[in-house]
Amino acid sequence: MSKLTYFNIASTAETDREHQVQLCLLQALCDAVRDQRGAESVGEILGQLIAYSEAHFMSEELLMRLQSYDDYAGHVDEHMHMMDVLGQIAADHEARNSSLVLGKAAEVLGFIGDHIATHDRRFAAFLSSGQ
User: Which in 17, 21, 28, 46 has the greatest CB count within 10 A?
Assistant: First the structure.
């Protein structure tokens, strides 16, 4: 196995682990709001989710650039959309609009699940093809 092939396989595995953490944080946010946990608890989870998502997207986008990924721009647009919605959730949380937070968090959970199943799977296939 070439070093590049090994790198691509390892990168895909690491990215999948990061996706699981991101999905767990999103679910934890939905659960915290639905269970009416305190604003501090919800804010802590939301802060972790935003910071984790920023770091994950940055590393994934760097990998795409390193591999000259052909759908880089479209993929980044989806990341930017998610960060925009997370920003809206943070603003709703600050305004104490928990019903809006729950609805938007559930929307992001669906959006990121779809993103992983489509865009991220396409990128994984691109990596495994040795492009």
Answer: 46
Contacts of 118 (CB under 8 A, 6+ apart): none
State the CATH number of the domain containing residue 11.
1.20.120.50
Model confidence, pTM: 0.86
Range of the domain at 58: 3-128
Residue type, 45: I
The separation between CA 77 and the C-alpha centre of its own chain, rounded to angstroms, equals 12
Question: Is the alpha carbon torsion for 91, 28, 75, 78 positive or negative?
Answer: negative
Report the distance separating Cα 39 and Cα 45, nearest Å.
Answer: 10
| 3-class DSSP assignment, residue 71 | coil
